[in-house]
Fold each of these.
Amino acid sequence: MNAKTVLVTGADGQLGSTLLPKLTAAGFKVIAITGSPDHKGNFPGVSYFSADLSSEKAVTILFEAICEGNPSLNHGIFLAGGYRHASISEADESLVRGLFDLNFFTAYHISRLLFMQCMKNSEESRLVFTGALPGADITSDPGSFAYGLSKSLLFTYANAINQQGAGANITARIIVPVTMDTPANRKSMPHADRSKWVAPSKVADAFCSCLTDKPEEAVYQIIS
């Protein structure tokens, strides 16, 4: 791939801060999207923007501003999202809509615009999403029903991208990490068995590989 510019959402999170230097070391110019305008990133080779990614209007304005200075942008890694515990009996409409905004629309709005731009380009394009085990199998954890439902949309969406973007050499993949070993998770789950957790660096390496290596046949990879 000649053009090496990648957009990364959720860049101010634990995984994002681990991923950014790996991408720049691999030769990518990085457009980092954060959730807070107050975030002060300092990684060389990274340009920072912020927006409410759940708002289609805000994302459209943001994307136009990004493309003005980065006409070769044709890769995306979508990390933004979050978890809330809720079984079916606990998942009222407000909570479900909130998780759809948090885990689907934060990826959908901006990746859709990138997809449409990539359809016009001749360069190979890769769009990589952050999945979750309950999204791949909604029955795997009853307490994560609402979260899994919101994440499951990304699997359907990635399949649609692969079908509709095949003629334009657009590939969508999903990285599905098990619980990551982060300070926040250690604090919220102090008694969990951390031997089954995965280091953020290993997950970041998997995202990088989705851009630099030949795409895997499977749409999603579980990283453990």
Amino acid sequence: MRLPALLATLALLGAAQAAAAAERAAAAMTDTAAAEAAISDTATLRVADRVLHVAALTEHVWRLRWARAATTAPDTSWAVPAALRAARVPVSSRETAAETTLATAHSTLRIDRHTLALALTDPQGRARWSGAVTPGADGAAYRLRAALAAGTRVLGLGDKGGPLDRRGGTFVDWNTDAYHYQESTDPLYKSIPFLITLSA
């Protein structure tokens, strides 16, 4: 092959490689945009210098994370697998000056933008859970309050003495080696900040 022909062939190959690289880059950008669109099925509410992150892990399960605006903690857990924490389902959202409404096919979560009062309802509009998130006085903690219907039982919190139903009790989330503990001793060995409510 003569030199001019060789140079032309190399130029064509270079153009083809550049086109292929551009296609790969475009595909990568599309994939990234799709991932960002999936992650955007969340809501972020700012109150002063605090942020409430809300995501629907399933059509029935909502996850709320409360943090300082500039120091959101890493999304880690010893109890919940990473794949489940990263799961998302489509969420429709609507905002007014007073309220943010998020909905999946089977549940709706309403959040008061000023008080962070929460209300969870089913597709028929029946109340399933209500409460509020309150920042702690030190700015580093928060308190989650929930309204419980008569007869609702509260289970969980890990190793705790006393009745299995935790309703009406006050408990400390701290692990300690409580030698010779009694029914009223708290905290004990394993504190797990997880509750299940059972309604009649």
Amino acid sequence: QKAFCPECTLTRDEVSQWLMDDGKCNYYDLQGNLVITGAANFTYSNRFSGDYARVKPNVGYGLIDTTGKLVVRCAYSDIDYYSDHMFATGYVAGYRDGQLGFCDLNGVETYSDFKYASNVVSVTGAFGHVKDLDGSYIIITAAAGELAERFKDYSYFNDQSRLVVLQKNDGSVGVIGLAGEEVIPFSADYRYTSNISVSNDESTILVYDRSKGSGVYVVYTGSYDFEPPVAEEEIVLQPGEWICPACGGVRNTNFCMEDGTMKPATDWFCPGCGTQNISDFNFCPYCGTKRP
């Protein structure tokens, strides 16, 4: 039957796409009702991929959720947006000046070095890797950032996985998670990254262990229960206010009266429309007001 019209009887649980973009940054539900109005704030929008859609005002891409809330601020020259599976990890890759960073779906930047250009870093879901000059691999996770150790080989499972198989330069192989922690300890008996496989729901890990004899596999079962960080408290800053990184207090002067910390060059609030903008912007991308 036809969708996005009053006669449609389908529900969102019966379809893969239940919100339609009209090309003017407005979204309609299956019955043709206008549920998100973005025309006043955005000049470009994508269709929803799962629960998120990529949007752009005059400059910078961000993400909105199905309520229309801007969950990832429009601070990136691009955002990875090719599969709703990637959002299952709770993180998304964003690029600033063509260099990689990661943020969670609360909009908090979890890897903000922005040191590797998009043409040298390869990203799969919440992981990235760069081949170093000596042939080893630099591994980046969305939650832990760049790992200190270099690796000989790697193997990703899919773009929604929170696990990656790595081989160290000494030949040992193991599995790490998004936080950089060892899930399967490294062992030389595993030999190759291809000797470890993980089920789609990550509840089962199959390991070919040579120390136990030819053709013997060890099955690990359980639940990989790492959860992406969730903001415990929401602080709403008023125009001109900032949070002191030393004491955590909310301040409205150029330095903290408690410990003397100077106000950092961070985000600012537009006096015209109230939008929070990144420090790189001297004009509000929503209404054009000059930074105070």
Amino acid sequence: MKHNQCKLNFLLRHWRRHCPKVLRIYWEAYGGWAALWKSAYLWCAAGTTVLCLCFRVESFLWDEAAVSILPDILGFSLGGYVIMVGFGDTEFIEALRGRESKESGPSIYMKINATFVHFIVVQAITLFMALASSAMGISAHPLVSLVGTFFLFYAIVTILAATFGVLTFANWYDQKPKD
């Protein structure tokens, strides 16, 4: 167990040192591995994937579904993200942004942004996997199909996470006293 912990610490140090800064900003604001493993959306996608594999219909091709569904959702997501970032007045954004201290973690503003970025990253990874595996002719391989189906469902259920993030953001704006 101790040996595995040393390996994990080494990998984490290596990742922090070599990962581009923007990915570290995103991952920290999202909440890292702890937030990912605690995500009900992740487990919903995993459960749906297992159910689909148990009752698999041979005509379901995850890569074709991803390529037909995700480009539209991705375009809508990017547009929505741009609108959300530009939403609100300067005073409202100022109230949400900025860390209380280094120890307090990301601001509320960054957490909401990270939810949207996570949503877009998952969609982009899924679309890339679908296109690459289809181009290589391996999308029907059982392992690739398992991972691809999971990512497809995860990309779809993260729509809810992003939607609730925007609703929360709008609710905070609505709670702001009128001048």
